[in-house]
Amino acid sequence: MELDKTLFIESFKKRLSQKYAIDVSDATNSELYDTLCSLVKSSYSVSWRQTWKDYLKENEKQVYYFSIEFLPGKLLKSNLLNMGWYQLVIDSFKEIGIDFEQVAAVEPDMALGNGGLGRLAADFMDSLASEGYPVNGNGIRYRYGLFKQRFVNGYQVELPDEWLKTAAGNAWEIRRASKAVTVTMGGHVELVQKNGYLEPIYKDATLIKAVPYDVGIVGYHNQHVNTLRLWSAEIPEAVESCYPTIEARRQIEDITTVLYPDDSNEAGRRLRLKQEYFFVSAGVQSIIRHYKKYHETIDQISQRVAIHINDTHPAMCVAEFMRILLDEEHLSWEKAWEQTVKTMSYTNHTIMAEALETWDIPLLNEIQPRILQIVAEIDHRFVAHLAGKMDGQLIERTRIISGGKVHMAHLAVIGSHSTNGVAQLHTDLLKSDVLRDFYTLYPERFNNKTNGIALRRWLQLANPELAAIIDQKLGRNWRQNACQLQQLQQYNTDEQFLKKLAVVKLHNKQRLAKLIEERTGVTVDPTAIFDVQIKRLHAYKRQLLNLLRIIKLYLDLKENPDLAIVPRVFIFGAKAAPSYHYAKSIIKCINETAALINHDSTIQGKIKVIFLENYDVSLAEQIIPAADISEQISTASKEASGTSNMKLMLNGALTVATLDGANVEIKEQVGADNIFMFGLTKQEVYRYYQDHSYHSLDYYHHNLVIHRVLDALIDGTIPNIAAEGHEIFDSLTYLNDDYFVLRDFEDYLRIQDQVDETYRDQKKWQQMSLINIAKACHFSSDITVKKYASEIWQVRSVAQKGGV
Ligand code: 26Q
């Protein structure tokens, strides 16, 4: 719908009156929000239908991105922006006395993901629609998203995320009962000969109704709308009477009740495996059902369908696809296998061995016995095929079933034609270490796709003031074509522009300072350095390294209150998995250190420590534009890529970084002079693993600074951390400091001194900031998804970019 203000206001008032029988002046923000969403949806639904029709008409190859997590956050602004309605709605609302920001704030975050992996899936969905690719998401509609975090006495407490129960609910979904499928789980299976085929007979199996809820994913100014399909588990009507007890019904509905919080220690949970099979089976069945509606035969399905496995969580796609081709379509094993491998592709997101998914054989047998049979047959044929050709030990190391377990990463690599890492260093490590044996077997399958971020959300929406001054220099075309941001470099000596950059940053910091004051009661100085570390709490991400430096600074200031440092506000946002005890202890220590420092007037407010509760996508959108420093300090080789590093540089923050994940590529882009690098390299880390020459206790004994800082954890300097302080102290000393925190400490201090020194030269700082903004366009997810499309999925773009 082409719109002007008058027409929009008229339609809005009419819709409000139809829906609620009220005027604007009587409406609550929820009612206004709901009405706006309803208008937005009815407008894009025309394009949504057309997108599908075009796909069908052109017999377009379809890609299905399977991910157990999608983390879109709020969708209203992003939909408005992509439809070209954003400014119009703000202006129109202003005219009729509505505060748009307050209305937008009503929307609950769609938090169906833990962090990086789920957010990446959401940025990819935005880019895929914006670039006009026929790619749809397939996931789970959790009734409860990632837990809400509160701090009580400095401890993390988790509360359920009842996002569907809020007044606003999920305005974006459409329940499609007519597209429901039945998922079969549990029981026993027998194969019997029938008409020349082996037919599986299921006994005592549980039938589950999988109902899809579709969310439209609106492309940027191109009339292209893709689908994110999220499945919900229900009791099939036909067998309703078989579930007489509440408990029996709950067992079914539980499958899609709650998102598992990322937790490497929590492996082997039965319900998690059920979730995985549930959304895999529902998705694959509906893909094949749809394909068959328009194709006579299925033996060339890989020419029209691609399935992407986002981490190993959906790796059972390989076996489920085989199951349907064999049991229902009666293809030969060889033909079915050929089509399966051609259809599947897989992204690995982790190098931490303990996070690689395995399942006990009896458990898989209990959840879906036919799938275990098929996995066993794949394993058997894999071994038989290599026997005599390859070293026996290599075969043992790479087979899918071994040591009583099913190795999901092995299933994903063997059952697909492409395995990619998410940053160059990560892909190199996959080849040389984690998946080394597979690289020997299938070198041609391995490729790198460095992660990216949606510039629309992380710049245009999160930082409108920055976007506006970029417009003044470059015009508006960069909004369509991210690469043009590079041209900003030519303003490197334009003092006026550099000053404008500084003013925008100051405004963003003032806004964040206000939020901090409201939420924590602590006043922070917007002219101080805002030093930001936002990411899940994990030992390898080393929030602890940051904390130790803060303690050091505090001790220095206590000794010498006149110490000449640039004032800093340390800002943390991080959730810990509920059962990750160590991570929770770190949260407690940060909170207690913050309380001590923020209330100590003797240090004259030179440093403040702010740990904001409940870090989520919406909070990220408020913190990132206000950051001066981006902390990307994981132990080299541990962070697969990182994506907050990209979002922060895009918003002009300078990065303090180890040579890990995508930091390496950020450094290549901006040059060593425009980033603060420190710490061990991955080679040095690996050497320590080999020669066992790291003894962290020596650092405690021989380095006076480290000694003093670690003692503060256990000698009462920081109050209320008797247990946690000792736990952390021990991990860094007697337990030999798994993540080399003490080893990197001195170098970290050195680089942070350099940060201070650089900040004193504001012109230089702004110049560095500008280069970071300009070069961030290399990490646009628009570019990343194009590479997935052409190099992995072999699909083409079907939409023209519009010029709205
Ligand atoms: C596992 C077992 C049981 C329950 C949950 C899980 C689980 C859940 C989520 C395991 C892992 C995750 C998420 C992993 C993740 O977010 N990885 C990050 O992916 C980003 C996108 O590629 C990278 O940038 C990060 O470096 C990587 O840590």
UniProtKB/TrEMBL annotation:
Annotated protein name in UniProt: Alpha-1,4 glucan phosphorylase
Cellular component annotations (GO), alphabetically ordered: cytoplasm
Coiled coil stretches, renumbered: none
GO MF annotation terms: glycogen phosphorylase activity; pyridoxal phosphate binding
Role: Phosphorylase is an important allosteric enzyme in carbohydrate metabolism. Enzymes from different sources differ in their regulatory mechanisms and in their natural substrates. However, all known phosphorylases share catalytic and structural properties. Allosteric enzyme that catalyzes the rate-limiting step in glycogen catabolism, the phosphorolytic cleavage of glycogen to produce glucose-1-phosphate, and plays a central role in maintaining cellular and organismal glucose homeostasis.
Keywords in alphabetical order: Allosteric enzyme, Carbohydrate metabolism, Cytoplasm, Glycosyltransferase, Pyridoxal phosphate, Transferase
N6-(pyridoxal phosphate)lysine: modified positions: K647
Catalytic activity: [(1->4)-alpha-D-glucosyl](n) + phosphate = [(1->4)-alpha-D-glucosyl](n-1) + alpha-D-glucose 1-phosphate
Cellular compartments annotated: Cytoplasm
CDD domains: GT35_Glycogen_Phosphorylase
EC number: 2.4.1.1
NCBIfam families: P_ylase
Cofactor: pyridoxal 5'-phosphate
Biological process terms in GO annotation: glycogen catabolic process
